[in-house]
Amino acid sequence: MHINNDLNRPVTVHASTLDWVPSPAAGVDRKMLYREGGEVARATSIVRYAPGSAFPAHVHTGGEEILVLDGTFQDEHGDYPAGCYFRNPPGTSHRPAAADGCTIFVRLWQYRNGDKTQIVRQPGEGDAVASRDGARAARVLFDDGAERVMLEEWLPGAVVSVPNPRGLELLALSGELTRAGERMTAQSWCRLPAGQPFQAECGTGGAQVWIKDAPLQHADVLKMPA
Fold first, then answer.
1. Which among 194, 167, 170, 180 is positioned nearest to 13, based on CA atoms?
2. How far apart are CA 77 and CA 114, in angstroms?
3. φ/ψ of residue 42, rounded to 5
């Protein structure tokens, strides 16, 4: 399966307009933003867990990166409420579930070879940094030099520019943005190749965005199984 797999082209996907696609686990459905592969895939998705649903225990051979959008995601290691961000590097394992249901943003098989950093940022955690023009607040969730992950709050009516020297992914979490005449709302996802900066005007309520500043595919990205 190939969905938005040309990394040399900009793409914007409004997940709120996509249909849910069932996963192999009952009660767990997906909206596919980017995908290369079958059930094991290099992928970026929005995933919804119905109340009481669970996914079988599994090892993350290719690693996973998750932002909880609503509800509480759970596994045997703890609870992860809305706003929680975490990284499970290759070799980690868990049995994910959601007693009351949840929605998460997930990136799979996009780790670099040798990246073993495991972190959990609970809501509000992360390093506060100086805000860019048009932003109210900014926090760094992860930065190892090869990639930088941020949560930012943008002011109502502000025009915000994000430089893009190596590749950008943005997920709108709340509020409204207009970029190149296209309206972005909660769960709108944008991916831009290096050299194409992101610029948008915020709506009257401002916006909260998740931003990854990193190559769209690392040169030493983990190889998928044959």
1. 170
2. 23
3. -80, 115
| Token couple for 146 | 């090869």
SS3 116: coil
What is the structure's pLDDT at 56?
84
Res 45: pLDDT: 98
Residue 77: its pLDDT value, please?
A: 86
CA-to-CA separations, 53 to 29, 79, 196, in angstroms, rounded: 10, 15, 40
Q: Indicate the helix (H) or strand (E) that contains 46.
A: strand 41-49
User: Where are the CATH 2.60.120.10 domain residues in the chain?
Assistant: 2-121, 127-213
Q: Which CATH class is domain 2-121?
A: mainly beta
Kindly state the DSSP code that residue 221 receives in the 8-state scheme: B
CA distances from 129 to 46, 136, 137, 149 (A): 28, 11, 8, 12
Residue 86 corresponds to which tokens in the numbers above? 């975490």
Q: Residue type at 172?
A: A
Q: What is the CATH number of domain 127-213?
A: 2.60.120.10
The confidence score (pLDDT) of residue 226 equals: 78
**pTM value surpassing 0.90:** yes
Terminal CA-CA length for the chain: 14
Query: H-type helices in 72-204, by residue range?
Result: none
How big is the CA angle at 225 (ends 223 and 226), to the nearest 5 degrees?
A: 115
**Amino acid letter, 131:** S
What is the dihedral angle through the alpha carbons of 139, 143, 113, 3, rounded to the nearest 10 degrees? 40
In the numeric block, which tokens belong to residue 212? 């990854």
Residues of the chain short of pLDDT 50, as ranges, are: none
